[in-house]
Amino acid sequence: MKSFGYSILVFLCLLTAASCEKDDICVEGNTPLMVIEFFDVNNRETLKNVTALRVVGEGQTVTVNTVTDRTNLNTITIPLKTASDTTGFLLISNSASNDDGFEIGNIDTVRFNYTRLEDFKSRACGFIVNYEELNGLFETDTDNWIQDIEIMQSKISNSDSTHVKIFH
Amino acid sequence: MLKYFISLTLILSMVTVLAQSKPIDTQPKDTVVYQQAFGIRVGLDLSRIIMSSLDDNYTGLELVADYRLTEDLFLAAELGNEDKTRQEDLYEFNTSGSYIKVGVDRNTYANWYGERNLIFYGGRLGFSTFNNTINNYQIFDTNRYWNPEGFATGSETPEEISGRTATWIEAVLGTKVELLPNIYLGASIRLGFLFTDANEGRFPILYVPGFNKVTWDSKFGVGYNYSISYFLPLYKKKNKVKKVAEEEIVE
Asked: Total domain count for chain B?
């Protein structure tokens, strides 16, 4: 009877331990952001700041929330669409507004195409998206500040390293 | 009279001897032997029936049965079917399937004369086959730039993942009380350990019929049941005399 008492105790301890769960908060993963670095076109190994950079998503009226607006930057981390296979951005260098509120900076449009790969992370997170087969193009106009785009990693599963190099 | 005295004494002493030939038994043996009833007990899990009527997203039924092997050992089994839809933060999924659990229970309760109650512990081997349906899901993304209103929709069309199986073992602790003759009310709690890898494939196993919820990154699960069952006596057998008691008598 004594050993039975012990077995009940062990059983209840296990039961308590088993019912502890961390299922309610998503900590296991997130849809990654794309990392772009800006390099000097004449010296392709050197990072070069874009002066007063502004990044606006194509079709959006507000600037991308992960980039500090109109600052000199050589690295930006921006979100891609999770519901579409193409995401466009307006990258504006020397961004400023005139007296009427119009943008007077140099606007270049960049589009990224990719395939989306859904990944179930955990009970709390559910599905996230990773991107594969990434490629990027910029629209040529009369006055491009962007000279070249190079894809460093065609698969985006985290935001730890550079995926895209832009030369200017 | 005196001349007969010696012969009279002799006769009387003979009578005395005759009277003592049958000794008085001060500890008579009880000839009424208490016999234990052996048989099969079948019933239903009440909790699953009640949950089915209360919860729109759940239907379940469980049959319970046990067969008495020895005085305190029972062969036990549960057979059931469950259908459960669960809405998580970003997805809704359904699990539907059947399960069987087979094992033994050991009664530890020392019944008084005539009582037939149980406080038991036991083990089960469980097996389930089921289908999952992802009814809809959204994509988790902490960056809200492209979807300020809510998470982007992943899919609205139900996607079925069929032919899934799971195997587990279970430790059981429970009781069965005879309320009316041969009618038992029982309750048990179960701690399960899942053998099957829950994270295989596109959608992991988050719920197993019979096993209950599969906790993330854990192999353990908990369950319970409340059963009402009928005991069908098949034959009767005398209580076995304990060996220890026999040795004591010999000494």
From this structure: 1
B11, part of any domain: no
Q: Does the global pTM surpass 0.80? A: no
Among B66, B65, B210, CA closest to B126: B210
Q: Which residue in A has a C-alpha nearest to residue B172's C-alpha?
A: A11
Asked if residue B174 is part of any domain, the answer here is yes
Report the half-sphere exposure of A129 (CA within 13 A, side-chain side): 26
Let me know if residue B58 belongs to a domain: yes
Instruction: Please write the tens of the pLDDT for every residue from B203-250.
Output: 999 999 999 999 888 889 999 999 999 999 998 887 665 555 455 555
Residue A23 has its nearest CB partner, among B189, B215, B220, at: B215
The domain spanning residue B175 has which CATH number?
A: 2.40.160.20
Judged by DSSP in three states, B83 sits in: strand
- A4/B91 CB distance under 8 A: no
Strands A34-39 and A164-167: parallel
The rounded distance, in Å, linking the Cα atoms of A16 and B60 is: 25
Instruction: Show the domain range for B76.
Output: 34-85+94-128+164-244
Q: Give a yes or no: residue B108 inside a domain.
A: yes
Q: Which residues of B touch A32 (CB under 8 A)?
A: none
Residue of B nearest to A14 (CA): B191
Measured between alpha carbons, how far is A148 from A168 in angstroms, rounded to an integer? 7
- The mean pLDDT of chain B is 87
The Cα-based distances of B216 to A26, A63, A129, A132, B177 in angstroms read 11, 37, 20, 27, 36
CA distances, B224 to each of A5, A148, B48, B227 (Å): 20, 64, 10, 10
Q: Tell how far CA B64 is from the center of its chain.
A: 8
Point out the residue among A83, A127, A129 whose CB comes nearest to the CB of B91.
Answer: A127
- Selected residue with higher pLDDT from B165 and B21: B165
